[in-house]
């Protein structure tokens, strides 16, 4: 029972922090202004890890390499802790561990896409004039706009978030299966 609780807590903490790091990188890609509340909260939560890395890894064009590397470091630490909780020696699994860490970061990114899409869809129905809507629209537009071009609106209803949700869920299944086949625990 203790192991299950520890895995749950580690998964929750690391997934939230990993998603914040990925969101920080994504904010730079979509050029979201840093003075809005979402950007400000993400920057404050991740500055302690990203800013020291930025001295070594500067941003190029629109890619925040410090945030990307911080995400990978976080994923590696998470995978090592999960391996330790299973009772295995992480040093014997180093090559596998690195691949699983990359898969974990990809899973965090897919989770982030799902949650942003769900939040945007809910707010568009409940409170379309919410101050968060322009931010969510800007963050999800690169994923939803290609789907909107392919999928027509049915009676004024935008079904692209549902299609994106299905696509991302399938990708998550593939990533999770790959990680499980490499290890004996679920990321």
Notes on the protein architecture:
- The chain is mainly α.
- The protein has one domain.
- It is built from 6 helices and no strands.
- The protein starts with a helix and ends in a 5-residue tail after the last helix.
- The model has no long low-confidence stretch (mean pLDDT 91).
- Using only C-alpha atoms, the radius of gyration works out to 18 Å
Order of helices and strands: HHHHHH
Shape: globular
Strand runs, count: 0
Mean pLDDT reading: 91
Strand content: under 5%
Class inferred from helices and paired strands: mainly alpha
Q: How many structurally independent domains? A: 1
What separation lies between the terminal Cα atoms?
A: 18 Å
Describe the sheet with the most strands: none
Family: Belongs to the YggT family.
Transmembrane segments: 6-27, 63-85, 97-123, 162-186
GO cellular component, one term: membrane
Protein name: YggT family protein
SSE inventory with pairings:
Blueprint: H1 2-29, H2 37-56, H3 65-86, H4 94-126, H5 132-150, H6 160-182
Q: How would you describe this structure in keywords?
A:
6 helices, 187 residues, mainly alpha, 78% helix, globular
Nutshell version of this structure?
The chain is mostly helical and 187 residues long.
């Amino acid at each position: 029972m203790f192991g299950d609780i520890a895995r749950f807590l580690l998964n929750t903490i690391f997934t939230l922090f990993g998603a914040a790091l990925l969101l920080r990188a994504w904010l730079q890609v979509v050029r979201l202004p840093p003075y809005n509340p979402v950007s400000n909260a993400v920057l404050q939560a991740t500055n302690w890890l990203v800013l020291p890395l930025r001295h070594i890894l500067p941003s190029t064009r629109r890619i925040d390499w410090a945030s990307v590397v911080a995400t990978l470091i976080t994923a590696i630490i998470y995978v090592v802790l999960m391996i330790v909780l299973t009772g295995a020696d992480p040093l014997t699994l180093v090559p596998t561990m690195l691949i699983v860490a990359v898969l974990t970061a990809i899973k965090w990114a897919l989770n982030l896409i799902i949650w942003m899409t769900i939040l945007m869809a809910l707010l568009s129905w409940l409170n379309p004039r919410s101050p968060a809507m322009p931010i969510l629209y800007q963050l999800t537009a690169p994923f939803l706009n290609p789907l909107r071009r392919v999928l027509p609106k049915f009676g004024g209803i935008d079904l692209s978030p549902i299609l994106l949700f299905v696509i991302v869920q399938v990708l998550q299944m593939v990533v999770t299966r790959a990680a499980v086949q490499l290890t004996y625990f679920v990321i």
